[in-house]
Amino acid sequence: MSFIASRLIHWHHNHGRHHLPWKRNRDPYAIWLSEIMLQQTQVNTVIPYYTRFMQVFPAIASLAQAPLDDVLALWSGLGYYSRARNLHLAAQKIVLNHHGQFPAVRTVIQQLPGIGRSTAAAIAVFAFGQREAILDGNVKRIFARFFGISGYPGEMKIQNHLWEKAEESLPIDHSNDAIETYTQSLMDLGATVCTRHTPRCESCPLRSQCVAFQEQLTDQLPTAKPRKALPQKETVFLLLLQQQKLLLQKRATSGIWGALWCPPEIATGVDATDYCQHHLGIQVKQQPIELPALDHQFTHFKLRIHPRLLHVVSDSRITEPESIWINPADALEQGIPAPVRKLLKQNFLSDNQTTRI
User: Fold this and answer.
1) Which band of pLDDT confidence, cut at 50, 70 and 90, is reported for residue 352?
2) For residues 20 and 43, what is the distance between their CA atoms, to the nearest angstrom?
3) Taking a C-beta distance cutoff of 8 angstroms, is the pair 230, 300 a contact?
4) Sequential DSSP letters for 158-207
5) Can you name the residues that pair with 246 across neighbouring β-strands?
6) Helix 43-56 and helix 68-75: axis angle, to 10°?
7) How far is Cα 86 from Cα 215, in angstroms, rounded to an integer?
8) Pairing, β 232-242 against β 302-311
9) Cα-flanking dihedrals φ and ψ of residue 325, to 5°?
């Protein structure tokens, strides 16, 4: 057995995370859901979402049959909404192409929407006891430090090198318990000890042979992504208020916040009153109220949202199914993106959930 595998398996017995709700569970659906939710999201944030999701959609069939709106509503606030859309689509494909049974082979799992090689491998290990290597962000960091591999892990050459190390480090023991414990211990070590900032090297079972520890390179490995200034974009959200209800529109399924409910959006410089009249068929008071701007950062750009409050003075003739008038408190139960949720809470809802404006 490799040094890494033997040390981690022994370490995990006393120091691993054994309390997580999806542990000791061979249900591939539950494991799949947890792995998708944990992508780019902290465990403590995921747990309440995971628990609610499993209560509402306890099996693949119930998820596949659910309207996408219901799925997104449960996901609202968790971010990276393409995960929820892919989860829903993958459930439908499992029902259609696999008779409702989650596939048991990593290469087949990997063909489902939203599932990459590492996630597919983790599901294959935990649900089916297969001998597969994982390489998520935490594991890349561990291997880059342990083997002293420099270079940004997002580069193909470096990533391929890390995959080679991941394969080489697998336990020779093919038993389900060994491979599962080793895989989980990698995840736990990266989350609790070999962290991105201020790693707890004194508690690491690998430190005696870790290149980064021996050569004091833990603050340099893994190599950071080359810095590039994020472009700044600006947009305007129209908060149209009619009889204490707001207008929300469902966005297209592709793009940012796909299939989520948002206020009407216009470019900066567009006359809000004129837009409401000619594009929405709504008469509003002449002067919109400018509310404080809200900044939101995506992976590839920064967005500044300028909310404009407009009071409707005529009955709206909007009847499209992709548009709804809704009480701000009720809107929080819909699939809305995090910045919209923040706007509603800041500008319309007090602690007792009553409309302020």
Assistant:
1) very low
2) 9
3) yes
4) HHHHHHHHHHHTS-S---HHHHHHHHHHHHHHHHHTS-SSS--GGG-TTG
5) 241, 326
6) 150
7) 42
8) parallel
9) -100, 130
CA distance 348 to 184: 44
Positive/negative CA dihedral, 164, 171, 143, 19: positive
User: What would the two tokens of residue 189 be?
Assistant: 């070590």
Q: Measuring CA to CA, how many Å separate 183 from each of 47, 72, 313?
A: 20, 30, 61
Active-site positions read 35
- φ and ψ at residue 338, rounded to 5 degrees: -55, -45
The residue behind tokens 């929300």 is 248
Q: One-letter amino acid identity for 244?
A: Q
Distance, in Å, from the CA atom of 182 to the CA atom of 176, rounded to the nearest integer, reads 10
pLDDT tens per residue, range 212-263: 999 999 999 999 998 888 999 999 999 999 999 999 999 998 888 999 999 9
d(CA 328, CA 321): 18
Kindly report the pTM of this predicted structure. Answer: 0.86
